[in-house]
Amino acid sequence: MPFHLEIVTAERVVLSDDVDQINVPTKDGRIGILPRHMPLLTILDVGELDIIKNGTTSAYVVTGGFMEVLPTRVTILADAANRDDEIDQSRAEEARRRAEAILAQRRSDQEMALAEAELRRALIELKLVSLRNLKGRNQ
Amino acid sequence: MPSTREIRRRIRSVKNLAQITRAMEMVSASKMRRAQRNVLATRPYAERMLDVMGELMSRAVTRRGTLLEVREPVRAVALVFITPDRGLAGSLVTNVLRRGSRFLLEERQRGRAIETLAIGKKARDFLVRTGQPMTGEVSKLGDQPRLVDILGIGSILRDGFLAGRFDEAHVVYSQFVNTLVQRAVIKRILPVEAPADPTGSSFDYTYEPDRDDVLRELLPRFVEVQLYQALLESIASEHSARMVAMRNATDNAKELQRDLTLSYNKTRQANITKEVSEIASGAAALAE
Q1: Rg over CA atoms, chain B
Q2: Could you tell me which chain B residue has the CA closest to the CA of A68?
Q3: Rounded to 5°, angle at Cα B72 from B69 and B78
Q4: Is the pLDDT assigned to residue B97 strictly greater than 90?
Q5: Looking at chain B, which residue has its C-alpha nearest residue A92?
Q6: Domains of chain B: total
Q7: Chain centroid to CA B203
Q8: Tens of pLDDT along B182-235?
């Protein structure tokens, strides 16, 4: 009697299938899940996820996330990206640095933006004038 | 009065313009469909996560020192602006920026300190132009951003909140209602508002390692997926707004073309009449 396995990430549904058994890496060690397992909510670790269906095993790699186990249904909320505090920190650092750099440049950028806005307004006015001239002649 | 040749030249240029806007409309239409699909693709994850959170929150959990902590009074807030990188999308960008700056104004009037973050070039330029304190920026993410692209911003929010730099974080973005309607909305993402499962726990889960641990791992991801969804909705809004804007531009160009054609025919007619009358009067002068 198989159970339903669903693997979803924040970006898409990776897998939705009926399977016989899975072996999952959790924070507390590798565990095997068979049908009619007791309800369980656990944190996944980085590692290999084995899915056994009709005697054949296919392997997936998970990079962390959660697993919700119900008697007839297992949902894996997998991380779409490798979670690593250090990498996250450097990404944050990068975003922060960019913001600072942009703010430092602010004066020149501001002048640029103002000039651009000015130019756009002038162009629109020009267009309006020429349109009005044209329409005026039609009447 | 412009010569017929000049009018003809303008008709040609308007025609070209209409062709370009028509092409842009079709490009946007196909990008919009893909963007909508992407929005839908994140729903299962967010929904399952809400279920799990509701289940977790149905019993007492530790809030202090986590992303759930509600602080009173609120002394400082952070606001993430999400906009497209490019314009030409009707009033979409303006609406988001206006909604966001109204929020900032209200918060300032309540005496709260402000910190802003930008996702998208238009947001960044606006924050720079208006001199807002900006603590994070990411842009040029393209039409199909990955979750990793916003992890930097997520991390800044998380750290800033836990360190007490601000007590609330909000995001302002364009919500995708349908092809014709996009709404600029503000959503609070910190502290996390977890839905308590009203039915209570239907299953008696075992938690490994324990309830608080699971929740602590879950909360940052929930914040990230909310940011990610807001970004995807913003992209879907962008393309549909651009599609509509381009359709209007095409219609306007067509109308302009009609006006110019009328103008052209009148001028041509006037020229012919003039020539005929010249010839007639010339002939009359000769006959005398």
Answers
A1: 29
A2: B52
A3: 70
A4: yes
A5: B152
A6: 2
A7: 40
A8: 999 999 998 988 776 655 556 678 888 888 888 888 888 889 999 999 999 999
Q: Is residue B285 part of a domain?
A: no
Selecting from B131, B148, B214 the residue whose C-beta is nearest the C-beta of A43 gives B214
Range of the domain at B210: 26-243
Q: Which residue of B has its CA nearest to A106?
A: B128
| Residue A43 with chain B: CB contacts under 8 Å | 208-209, 213-214, 217
Per-residue pLDDT reduced to its tens digit, A2-51: 899 999 888 888 888 899 999 998 888 889 999 888 888 899 888 888 88
Using the beta-carbon criterion (under 8 Å), do A77 and B52 form an inter-chain contact? yes
Whether B68 and B61 have beta carbons less than 8 Å apart is answered as: yes
Select the residue of B56, B218, B228 nearest A10 (Cβ to Cβ): B228
Report the distance separating Cα A114 and Cα B128, nearest Å: 12
Q: CB-based contact (8 Å) between A81 and chain B?
A: yes
CA A119 – CA A126 distance, rounded (Å): 11
Is B134 strand, coil or helix? Answer: strand
**DSSP character for B170?**
E
3-state class of B58 per DSSP? coil
**Could B128 and A68 be called an inter-chain contact, meaning their C-beta atoms sit closer than 8 Å?**
no
Give the CATH number for residue B257.
Answer: 1.10.287
End-to-end CA separation in angstroms for chain A: 82
